[in-house]
């Protein structure tokens, strides 16, 4: 009598694991083009019984972990006839067991960036032809979409606003649908902004997110012109920075300082009426902001634009050479 039957007769449980088995694979299906709405990423765990030591499949499990981390977490599973997901609302899980052919467990994500920047592990469990427990697993890493870092991808996925949990009980279905659509638009706009930022990286420094927006600061000194620079900001998805309060002023000042600039142009100007500063794009009067001591002073009667630095705003000639800041809102 061979060794394996002896162990079975003694009641010893044996589980044999095989990594990277050719009959077990993970298939990522990426959207094309990337930003097409309703074309999210799918991750499919596929098991083929042909050539496998597992003759009777009992479960398929899909685990995932963020790239660079060590611990896997169960994402979805099919055990016998029961299909489960631990991914929360949004992703769709489907599964099918086929005794003589391919079985699969699939996760389809609901937004274009979900599911990226993870390593996935697919685990198949079952029994061989003499009833011994067997396990096979394989892993596959899915990198970030082209043009995005993994940090940016996870920033997008954590920016999603709660939809149902924060709704008042009297809110109509139409209101909920509008809220869902608005949140989807925010996420898609954010993705577009980040992809633009990656392509404009040679021209601009990119800030962190602040109150639903980012800021682009030009990297080179150029002759300034309000209309020209505002149009360049529009091409980048925003407009010349409009400071709405002292908190935003402080954020932009610290951003420009971190990028190595002590002074950069913003949109406030009094071109039309001396002493009455307005935002260039919105034409709104500027709020109460912090000015440098002695500013604005309209030196030599030729300072109609503004620059920001750590000490506050100052008026400056609209034809000076310098750098400028664009404000790019999420909505």
UniProtKB/TrEMBL annotation:
GO MF annotation: an example: growth factor activity
GO cellular component, one term: extracellular space
Chief place of localization: secreted
Chain ranges of the C-type lectin domain: 210-327
SMART domains per record: CLECT
Compartments in which it is found: Secreted
InterPro entries the record matches: C-type_lectin-like, C-type_lectin-like/link_sf, C-type_lectin_CS, CLec_Tetranectin-domain, CTDL_fold
Coiled coil: none
Signal peptide (residue range): 1-20
Keywords, comma-separated and alphabetical: Disulfide bond, Lectin, Secreted, Signal
Domain of life per record: Eukaryota
Protein name as it appears in the record: Collectin-11
Organism whose genome encodes this protein: Plakobranchus ocellatus
């Amino acid at each position: 009598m061979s060794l394996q039957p002896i162990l079975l007769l003694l009641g010893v449980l044996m589980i044999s694991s095989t990594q990277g088995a050719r009959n077990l694979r993970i298939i990522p299906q990426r959207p094309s083009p990337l930003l097409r709405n309703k074309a999210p990423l799918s991750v499919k765990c596929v098991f083929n019984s042909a050539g496998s030591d597992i003759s009777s499949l009992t479960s398929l499990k899909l685990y995932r972990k963020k790239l660079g981390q060590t611990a896997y977490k169960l994402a979805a599973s099919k055990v016998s006839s029961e299909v489960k997901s631990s991914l929360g609302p949004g992703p769709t899980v489907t599964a099918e067991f086929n005794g003589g052919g391919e079985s699969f467990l699939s996760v389809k994500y609901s937004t274009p960036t979900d599911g990226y920047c993870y390593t996935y592990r697919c685990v198949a469990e079952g029994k061989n032809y003499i009833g011994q427990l067997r396990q096979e697993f394989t892993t596959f890493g899915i990198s970030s979409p082209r043009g995005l870092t993994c940090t940016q991808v996870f920033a997008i996925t954590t920016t999603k606003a709660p939809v149902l949990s924060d709704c008042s009980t009297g809110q109509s279905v139409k209101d909920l649908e509008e809220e869902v659509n608005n949140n989807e638009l925010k996420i898609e706009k954010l993705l577009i902004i980040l992809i633009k930022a990656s392509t404009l990286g040679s021209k601009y420094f990119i800030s962190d997110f602040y109150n639903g927006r980012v800021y682009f600061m030009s990297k080179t000194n150029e002759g300034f012109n309000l209309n020209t620079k505002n149009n360049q900001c529009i091409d980048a998805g925003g407009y010349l920075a409009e400071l709405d309060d002292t908190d935003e002023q402080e954020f932009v000042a610290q951003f420009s300082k971190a990028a190595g600039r002590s002074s950069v142009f913003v949109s406030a100007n009094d071109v039309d009426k001396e002493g009455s500063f307005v935002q260039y794009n919105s034409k709104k009067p500027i709020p109460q902001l912090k000015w440098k001591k002695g500013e604005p002073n309209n030196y030599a009667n030729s300072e109609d634009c503004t620059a920001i630095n750590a000490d506050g705003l100052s008026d400056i000639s609209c034809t000076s050479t310098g750098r400028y800041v664009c404000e790019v809102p999420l909505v």
